[in-house]
Amino acid sequence: ATMGKADHRLVAFAESLARLGFAALVPDLPGMRRFRPEEADVARIERAFSWMTRDGADSFERCSILAFSFAAGPALRAAARPAVGGKMAAFIGVGAYYDLKNVLRHLTTSGGQNRPAFPGGLPIRHGKWLFLRYNLELLGLEAHRDRVAAVVSRKRKDEAADVSDLLFAAGGCARGRRLDGEQIPRAIRSAFCAAGSQTARAPAGLGDARRRSRGRGQEIFSARA
């Protein structure tokens, strides 16, 4: 969520944990607020865990990591790091995704012809506009940030809204038309094929994290999205 740790749902959940006697820490993850998996967020989670367990070995057995939805990715990668993995009491992923590539395809294309990418799931039509807003460099639109923000705002309010005036100013109508069809899905494919792409590395890293954590005998609870 764009509100990050200030999201009212996270605040309410943390307060509920505190009422039950837990010490709850909700780190700020800028990458998650931009809907981007970033290595910096993994490091932030690791630092948060280190701070919560600063009292030493006894505190490790009482400290767990819990992550919701998209944030489960960097949280699981943090759990696989030496400073965290093998020390925490448990990792809990609620609504965690299994395959980042499928998640992005679902969010940005709704599976094609308004069909969901996941059987039985509902298309998330505004997902492609959020992806566009936070991934301008993948589409070559960095110079048109303000115009693209206006397109996203208008389209999120009304999918059928006419944005031709904004598209022309942001690089031509031909490019604009592709944003709703070919260009965003193609950008996703390119991101996963590009060598060294941070987005492309995420799925492999998550798989490695999952294997390493299980190998240490940690309890991992993951609800597949």
* Cross-sheet strand order for the largest sheet: 1-2-3
Radius of gyration (Å): 19 Å
- Can you count the helices? 12
Beta-strand segment tally: 3
Task: Tell me what portion of residues adopts beta-strand conformation.
Answer: under 5%
Chain oligomer state: single chain
What does the main sheet amount to?
3 strands, parallel
Overall pLDDT confidence: 72
Order of helices and strands: HHHHEHEHHHHHHHE
Query: How much helix is in the residues?
Result: 40-55%
Structural class: mainly alpha
What is the count of structural domains? 2
Overall, the morphology is elongated
Span between N and C termini?
A: 16 Å
| Low confidence ranges | 172-178, 195-225
Q: What's a concise summary of this model?
A:
With 225 residues, the chain is mainly alpha-helical. It has 12 helices and 3 strands; from the N terminus they run ααααβαβαααααααβ.
Provide structural commentary.
This protein has 12 helices and 3 strands. With 225 residues, it is mainly α. It has 2 domains: 4-98 and 202-222, no CATH class; 100-193, no CATH class. A 3-stranded parallel sheet has the order 1-2-3, covered by helices on one side. α5 (72-79) crosses α12. Mean pLDDT is 72; it is low at 172-178 and 195-225.
